[in-house]
Structure formats: C-alpha cells, structure tokens
Amino acid sequence: MLFDHCAECRRCCNVELGYSPLEITLTKAETRRHGRMCIVSDCESLGPNGCELGEAKPFSCKLYPLSYDPTGRRFYYDNECPLMPEYMRQLGDGKSEARAHVSAMFALIKELEVTEANFLKRNFAVDVDYFDLKELPSFDFRPGNNE
C-alpha cells in the first residue's frame, strides 16, 4: 500500500533539530477541535503505526505530500518526500492510491474554496515556507478522469 511507508518514514511529522517549528494550519472546525497544533520536534499525534488522529486528522496533514496553491489553482508536492517517486508513477493509473488521494483532496479543496478560502491561502504560505515544493504534472484530478 502506498501510504504504509509513511508510518516508517515519519519525515513529515518530525522537525529536525535546528529547524523552526512547523505550525499546522487548521480550518475553523479543526481549530475548535484541536486548538493549536505545532510540531517542535515530533508530532504529539504520531504513534508507532503513524498518525493516531484518524478522521480527525487536519486537512493540511491529509493533503501531504501535496500542497495546493489556491491563487494559481495548482497542486505542488514536497520534493523531499521519499514517497513521491511511487506517488508520481501511480498518478497515471486512475485506480491507484495516489489517484484516489489526489481526487479526494481535490473534492475537499473545492469545498474549502467556498467555505475557507483564507485557510487555503494560509496553508499554502506555510507550505511554501517550509517544504521544497515542485509543481505536480497536470492531470484532471476529478474522480473518473484521466483513467
């Protein structure tokens, strides 16, 4: 499974010594649920098998290793994520985990563009500042397209 490697890698849930903390961008509903989330060294929600938040996992964490620029309406990815070569390979397969992930994120983003446009802008600004972003190749990420 594509994202099974994440529980082993844990790169996105850790901040190396000497780097500034990573403030997790939260929607209004997530802020009510979690308050504030900031990774100083290790994410407090990271267990031995990965994230322990389940469905309560913040959107910005669900989106990773992707990032979304709401102004340019483009997806980017963290170039340093070890998962990305396989993720990119799978994007060409309409039935893959990578395609399911990006399609689900696309659907959530469409909702957030209406309800929380400022959140999307804040989240992208944090991602640009923190990650080594590269533009994702163009696909029609709506479910059922580019298969």
Write the layout of secondary structure elements.
Blueprint: H1 4-9, E1 22-23, H2 28-34, E2 38-39, E3 46-47, E4 50-51, H3 59-63, E5 66-69, E6 74-78, H4 84-90, H5 97-115, H6 117-130, E7 133-135
Antiparallel strand pairs: 1-2, 3-4, 5-6, 6-7
Helix pairs in contact: 5-6
DSSP helical segment count: 6
Number of domains: 1
| Uncertain spans | none
- The fraction of residues assigned to DSSP E strands is 5-15%
Largest sheet geometry = 3 strands, antiparallel
Element-by-element helix/strand order: HEHEEEHEEHHHE
Envelope shape: globular
State the secondary-structure class. Answer: alpha+beta
Termini gap: 20 Å
- How many DSSP-defined strands? 7
- What is the rounded Rg? 15 Å
- Overall mean pLDDT score? 89
Strands ordered across the widest β-sheet: 5-6-7
Q: Helix content range of the residues, please?
A: 25-40%
